[in-house]
Amino acid sequence: MLSKANIQHIKSLEHKKFRQEYGEFIMEGRKIVMELINAPGPFRIKKLYLEEGLPGPAMTPEAEYISAKEMERISSQTTPSGALAVVEIPKVPVALPQKGYLYLALDGVRDPGNFGTILRLADWFDIAAVYASPDCVELYNPKTVQSTMGAILRVPVHYTPLAPLLEGCSLPVTGSVLVGGTDINNTHLPSEGMIVLGNESQGISHEVLEHIPVRLYIPAYRRGSESLNVATAAAIICAAFRRNLPPLPTQPDI
Amino acid sequence: MLSKANIQHIKSLEHKKFRQEYGEFIMEGRKIVMELINAPGPFRIKKLYLEEGLPGPAMTPEAEYISAKEMERISSQTTPSGALAVVEIPKVPVALPQKGYLYLALDGVRDPGNFGTILRLADWFDIAAVYASPDCVELYNPKTVQSTMGAILRVPVHYTPLAPLLEGCSLPVTGSVLVGGTDINNTHLPSEGMIVLGNESQGISHEVLEHIPVRLYIPAYRRGSESLNVATAAAIICAAFRRNLPPLPTQPDI
Q1: CATH architecture, range B102-242
Q2: Nearest CA to B131 among B89, B178, B173?
Q3: Where are the domains of chain A?
Q4: Do B221 and A125 touch (CB under 8 A)?
Q5: pTM, 2 dp
Q6: Chain A within 8 Å of B185 (Cβ-Cβ)?
Q7: pLDDT tens across B22-40, in order?
Q8: How far does B251 lie from chain A, in Å, by closest CA?
Q9: Any idea what DSSP says for residue B162?
Q10: What is this model's ipTM?
Q11: What is the maximum span of chain B, computed from C-alpha positions, in angstroms?
């Protein structure tokens, strides 16, 4: 049985202020919670709520079965999927980029859906880590967590000012721009390096742009077309960087 | 001065039921409204609300200046941008695909943000029209309109059952699948045809898949990575289809 204080505590974690105060955030959904339990990563489960009657993981000291009604009260989803974890926000030191790997750096990406979708892409395209400028949306925003579709468990995210990071970066640094720069289809793209993506409406800030020697753009094919959403631009760029590498072996046709 | 009935009418258009009843929808934002006024397309403005004091288009019989307070009452945005149009939902007959053009067909795309983002992409990559299965989200949903960023004015959308459309289609038909099929990087992609994209969690329905002779997949580069969001998959696929075509001349570096 959930106490009123418990419910209030969990609901408070929908707000950044309380996530920071308690050092906790929410992961919700049966699939992501199952992955979380098995994940080797830095995320420690403080409390796990499972809906009665649903097949779930074996009981652990953190797990508690609650009624569907109770789940509805703590869930932030319109259709609760039956599993919700309260997770400790890990304190991971910022790791510097390493030779041989590909990284993304996000300069002021504000929309949680975009940020989460980019993390999901980063996972798909084997990006070693994502660096986020301090004015990016918070990783632990419930909408961000949700739209990573589990990639939050596999892709490290480091919040750090980008200008010094790029200045000290020994890997090739490229950035996506809307005007000027090199057509992404007509240039050699390295298999290691740092790819910078900018804010939804302003693009990459001047301060960061100064540290980007190679600027890439995605060509448009219709006059009057406006711009691309940052997550779709990230998709096209990541696919272009990976195009010439051997992908994973595919699963058989089912 | 806006009457209470006016305000209620405008707010009612946030709901599908009333959009269908009145045959009207809302476009909001100074940029999209300016584009709407100059658009050659099928969209007829029934009423145009502009915030007093903002530079706006020349007055037309449909235009009315209202106060910032009034704009707040009719706007569905947290920060109203000062222009809101009530637009007639056009009755456009379904146009069949034509030789020489590239089309998208969406099978059950449910999320308004995804649908709108795909329209924005379609504009960028010069897709002639988008076909949407009847169970796709509604084009006139405010969130869909918003995320098209104006592309709704340039890309025709036709709601129609996809199986008969594909069956009668004389252009090359391809579809994006998660398993099986051909690596998109290792196959010739035609400059005309129909590209089918599926639902966010189910992919392309069996009924529609039967009519897709060429199935394409986007290779993954990390084991355990889950799947791609449908709008990011659309981005990668559209970019791949256009890669070998000459893009528009670029603007000078600014």
Answers
A1: 3-Layer(aba) Sandwich (3.40)
A2: B173
A3: 4-88, 102-242
A4: yes
A5: 0.92
A6: yes
A7: 999 999 999 999 999 988 8
A8: 6
A9: H
A10: 0.91
A11: 62
